Amino acid sequence: MEKTEQEVTVETKPCAICGERGKVTVPMRSYLLWCDGLLIQDAMPNTPRADREQLMTGIHGRCFDAAFYEEETSEEDYEEELGL
Ligand SMILES: [Zn+2]
């Protein structure tokens, strides 16, 4: 018999960066532990940090990366800014 862990898909708060809600799927047991007040990193140590972050804040991993590690400005935009 296959041993599959029950999972729960949680709708997260609107993302502070893009405004969209998201969904994170985590093990049911971990989720219940977290709801019980356990620290999220203790409740779901195998869940990627980005997913835990999204559960707590609603901010998507990709939005977080985009906001804090800004893509290099394209050369065209740069020249436009300089009025070239
Ligand atoms: Zn987002």
What does this structure look like?
It is a single chain. The protein has one domain. The protein is built from 5 helices and 2 strands. It has helices at residues 28-35, 40-43, 49-57, 61-68, 75-82, and strands at residues 7-11, 23-27. The chain has a two-stranded antiparallel sheet with strand order 1-2. It is elongated, with a radius of gyration of 18 Å. The model has no long low-confidence stretch (mean pLDDT 87). Bound molecules: zinc ion. The site of zinc ion (ZN) has 6 residues, from loops. Residues 15, 17-18, 20, 60, 63 line the site of zinc ion (ZN).
Topology:
Blueprint (H helix, E strand, L loop, with lengths): L6 E5 L11 E5 H8 L4 H4 L5 H9 L3 H8 L6 H8 L2
Antiparallel strand pairs: 1-2
The structure holds zinc ion.
The site of zinc ion has 6 residues, from loops.
Spatial sequence of strands, sheet with the most strands: 1-2
Distance between the termini: 68 Å
Question: In sequence order, what are the helices and strands, one letter per element?
Answer: EEHHHHH
β-strand number: 2
Main sheet characteristics: 2 strands, antiparallel
Low-confidence stretches: none
Strand content: 5-15%
Q: Quickly count the helices.
A: 5
Give the total of domains. Answer: 1
What integer is the average pLDDT?
Answer: 87
Helical amount among residues, as a percent range? 40-55%
- Rg value: 18 Å
Class by SSE composition: alpha+beta
Question: What overall form do the CA principal axes indicate?
Answer: elongated
Q: Which ligands accompany this protein?
A: zinc ion
